[in-house]
Amino acid sequence: MTAGRPRRGVLSIGAVLERLRPEFPDVTISKIRFLEAEGLVRPARTAAGYRQFAEADVERLRFVLSVQRDRHLPLRVIRDQLDAEPAACAPVTRADLLAGTGMDAEQLSQLERDGLLRPGPEGRFTADDLTALRTIRTMTGLGVEREHLRAVRAAADHEVVALRSFSDPGTVRELAGLFTSLHTLLVRAGLRQSS
Question: Where in this chain does the record put each HTH merR-type domain (predicted)?
Fold first, then answer.
């Protein structure tokens, strides 16, 4: 290995920036350093003090940036979530979902049949799936029935079809947030009119 050259699988802060920029065009080296200072990512350091990011660090940054952008959560809340669930940005297994929601295997299978849970490649899920299942559990505890949940899934699918008609990832991300905001406002307006 040439002196000064990073080990295989280790990324410099510049390489991390290149990896994140396509999905997060506004991210900068200063932003990555700030997130490190806030304790949201902890890259290793060389003897000379250079940051060495692993793939897990990149995924953690991707999770933090997406939650900031999509859910507008403060960094303190994101840090608390990551500390409570260290694997929040890592793939989630079926066993993780069962343990994290208190659901049984049959309930999980039923949600898959209803299209409310869709595993990705190799049967893996994400932290968003875990959050969705917890939300579903709360909703069903409040009396929401399966047909209501399927209606929510159908509405989301319609939005996905509309969003896929746009090719620019930045536009899609912005529109996804606007769709969510508009949906919330329309529901509120409908409830005001019916009361």
Answer: 26-84
- Report the CATH architecture of 9-85: Orthogonal Bundle (1.10)
CATH classification for the domain delimited by 91-163, as one of 1.10.1660.10, 3.40.50.360, 3.90.180.10, 1.10.132.30: 1.10.1660.10
**Which pLDDT tens digit goes with each residue over 38-75?**
888 888 878 788 888 887 788 889 889 988 888 787 88
Chain centroid to Cα 51, Å, comes to 25
Residue spans of the chain under pLDDT 70: 1-9, 83-91, 121, 195
SS (H, E, C) the chain: CCCCCCCCCCECHHHHHHHHCCCCCCCCHHHHHHHHHCCCCCCEECCCCCEEECHHHHHHHHHHHHHHHHHCCCHHHHHHHHHHCCCCCCCECHHHHHHHHCCCHHHHHHHHHCCCCCCCHHHCECHHHHHHHHHHHHHHHCCCCHHHHHHHHHHHHHHHHHHCCCCCHHHHHHHHHHHHHHHHHHHHHHHHHHC
